[in-house]
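ERR on first pass: missing label on line 2. Operator R.T. fixed the label and resubmitted. Corrected input:
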Amino acid sequence: MKKMNWIFTFIFLTTVNANAATNDVLSTKEFKLKSRNVTAEVRVRKTAVVVGMPYSLELRVNCDGGRKIDFKTLDAVDSKNICDVKPKSPRLMADGESIGILVREVDSDAYNQQTQNLSPDQVGELVPTCKKQTSEFVFKLKEFCH
Amino acid sequence: MSTFEKTAKTILFGGCVIFALTACGKFENQTGEWASGAADDSASAVPETPRPVTPPTSVGAPSTPASVDFMISRSSSTIAHGVAKTWNGCDHSQVVTGGYDSDTKCGSGYFLPAFADHLNGNFMTCVDKAAVVADYPRPERVFLRHLGTYVNRNGRGSTELSMHAFARAIDIAKFILYDKQGTEIQVVNSIAAYKGANAKFYDSFRECWKQSISATCRPGQRESNGSIGHAKSALGGNSLHNGHIHLSFPPCAG
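pass 2 clean. output:
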């Protein structure tokens, strides 16, 4: 009986860990390139590994677009840490070879100034803020799958 | 047509109009909300802009010979979990300057005193070795585009404090190298840039840093490699570090 309990505990913990690893995904969006047989996926995650940039954008590319593939099995070919993002915003741009995502960049100028004016213990508690302006970050796919 | 039919038609038509307007509104708002929950400011939305490219800068261009690699304060300050010394990333009399998420704007960083000493004893040696392996000109000065030094926080998804909380780490997104003539070479520490000379520099630098702390660090100890990068690299890593090198001075190093 004790052994069974251990097995159930192991299965439970494994499941929880697996969920923790995948639960940081806020959105995924797939695209088919217009001119080539290539599909791509943009994944938005809340990774919280870089100060002031809690979100990350990841690009995965399937060079054999005719073959259905689970993008989870592919490694990211490009990524970007970002201050804020609209997870539903990724879109194929007019050139058919780029994917645009609406983001807010971190206000690095302000943070750099603050690091010079505040004491170290104050800086340690400081979280850089996002710029107010929206910009469109672009993943360019031209360099992939040749 | 009876009054009942007229009323029903009016309601149906009204419903259709409301549905169409709602659907239209949804279409306009297809991009959704900000992940942070911040308020939208559509007036400031900017149409398609290419990936930002920073113009060449003279930040690291040589002026007078530098006397020290990292200009570190003499006195220590108390931080949440120990003490730290201040690195003035803006002082151009040193070899290594730098700033948070910028190729040109500088700021200060904070290091545990032993980490500061280790940086001054080993960092530029490793940059120089990596430059030789990558066949780059020998760097005289370096500007670091970093993504944070001392930050009082836990490790991601962990109840343990991060190395950043002890001022034992710096996240390096880019090395901007300047040779004697002031020629600039950018070494981007991302998985997308991991090819050719850039990859050689990346791997060689991390291996050198690992060797620099190997006297006391053993495999299996926390961050015993002294750095975390991306999974494609020689020393390995994970997808959380696809865009930077987490360079650390772990407790096993001193």
